[in-house]
Specification:
about 140 residues, about 5% strand, two-stranded antiparallel ribbon, mainly alpha, 2 strands
Length: about 140
């Protein structure tokens, strides 16, 4: 029971709302470090194989994950928590990146399709109509 209290202590929990409300400063800094690594490296790995694995390895190589003072009950739990946190952050960021990119591509395709349709359906006014308009 004491280990459970220590784990909950590192986060601000609202029991009335049944969930995490605000992460601790260490957790927030850890998340920001992951975000910086993803922003720098996602363009280079998104078109290749093993996107998650490549980003995960990059985060582990570039960030010293053990330097964050995240309060946990033991070092084993801390290592497990760090690995899971990295994995979840990467899942969310990759999903968001792909969703945003797909939306942009869809809008671009619709715009091209619309301009193509407008060119095909554009009715040229007859010469007689032009003459009447100018009178």
């Amino acid at each position: 029971m004491e280990k459970h209290r220590l784990l909950i202590h590192c986060r601000q929990y609202d029991w009335a709302k049944y969930g995490l409300t605000v992460p601790s400063p260490a957790v927030f800094d850890f998340r920001c470090a992951i975000q910086r690594v993803v922003q720098i490296n996602i363009e280079g790995v998104i078109a290749g194989l093993r996107v998650m694995g490549c980003l995960y390895d990059t985060v582990l190589q570039t960030s010293d994950c053990t330097s964050y003072s995240i309060d946990t009950c033991c070092t084993e739990h801390k290592c497990m928590w760090v690995r899971k946190a990295i994995w979840l952050c990467l899942c969310v960021r990759i999903h968001h990146f792909v969703r945003t990119r797909n939306t942009e591509l869809k809008q671009l395709a619709e715009k091209k399709k619309q301009t193509k349709v407008n060119k095909l359906t554009a009715v040229k006014p007859s010469r007689k109509t032009k003459k009447v308009k100018h009178l």
